[in-house]
Amino acid sequence: MQHIKKIFCLCAMYIKCMMCCIKQPLNIHVLKQKYYPIKTLVIYGIQALRIPYDKILLFISMILCIFTLFFHLLFSFEDIGMTLQGILDKAKNSALLPIVENNQLSTLQRSMFEKLDFKMTKEQIELGKILFFDPRLSGDSLHSCNSCHNLALYGTSFVDEGQLNPQKLNAPTLYNMIFNDVAYYEGKFSRFDTDDKNTTKFPTKNIIARATLHALTASNEMNGNIEKVIALISKSDEYMSYFKRAYGTKVKVSGELIAQSIAGFIMTLHTFSRYDDFLTGNLKALSFEEAKGLELFIDKGCVACHNGINLGGSMQPFEVMRPYKFANIGGLSSNADKMIKVPTLRNITMTAPYFHNGGFQKLEDAIQEMGQIQLGITLSNKEIAGIISFLETLRGYPEPVSIPILPRL
């Protein structure tokens, strides 16, 4: 936009110059002092030939304006293209990666279920969706996975102020969870774990299945009685028909099979965005202002923690420069190593409130706080607006998910 303004200002200068020549008596010495030599030559020639110079000069001024506009547009666009390419290169060098799709995504999904009877089939995903939306898996038969991780709210919800959430935890989004390194704010499950005392069935890198198995019985989550749930499902012909279609007629329901099915469904929740399009080489995917916001995000040091495919999802130091303003809410702090799970920034403009305890409702306030506690800097309003313009490009549009009719128990 600034380039365009400069161009029109320059064109206006040319027109003003020519109109002055038309209105004022022709004086070749004045022209030599005030205007460019090429204009002096043209006007001198017109005077010698005794041609009505007012119309001729107006025509020439229009030609000069058109040429100038074309020239500056050509080189301005070239300059913008070089700037965008430089920002793209900087992003790639900062460990920012696009979402994997198609065959790469399928390979990643299947790798999470090595040596298991789970192939991400349509029937297995459908069963996982049914279990995800079924509140009867919970202790009070009122809370489903979707109660806290509402897919209509980009896999999040508002902070539950009830007794079952004493730490006032802000439910993290489940979208794009497959690209995270850890689950839970304190990093309870990591893909780099050597083993899991709760299960030997899942590969340790399958943090989604491991976290789901834990959530089914955790007192501050589903608080379910897994043996009771297994018994209810096993006695239901309708429910068992879904399990048999997914796993064969000899299937035996278990807590791990339930968790595995839900995890498979969660792994289908991902959101490709304009940001990913830009990272794959489409320089037109972001506006110039949005790309400059990305550059600001990198230059200020945000990528030290918010990197990788998910721009988060790993364990990083917390409260590096000073304490978090709302650390007293809920009482959850960093782990023994003073680390905490970094939330993904994908769809961040759609997943308020912010921070692990929902301390901030406005994104601009959360960014200012993060700059101070992590980087020790105070960002200007202009800088925050620039970063938010970039964060807007991280919004993807999920595939619609239909709510299933639950089987009769």
Model regions low in confidence, pLDDT < 50 over at least 5 residues: 21-26, 28-32
Shape: globular
Largest sheet: 2 strands, antiparallel
Number of helices: 15
Order of helices and strands: HHHHHHHEEHHHHHHEEHH
Distance between the termini: 62 Å
Portion in strands: under 5%
The total strand number stands at: 4
Features:
mainly alpha; two-stranded antiparallel ribbon; 15 helices; 47% helix
Structure description:
This protein has 409 residues and is an all-alpha fold. The protein has 15 helices and four strands. Helix 6 (122-133) packs antiparallel against helix 10 (237-247). The longest helix is centred in the N-terminal third of the chain and has 41 residues, at 53-93. The model is unreliable at 21-26 and 28-32 (pLDDT under 50).
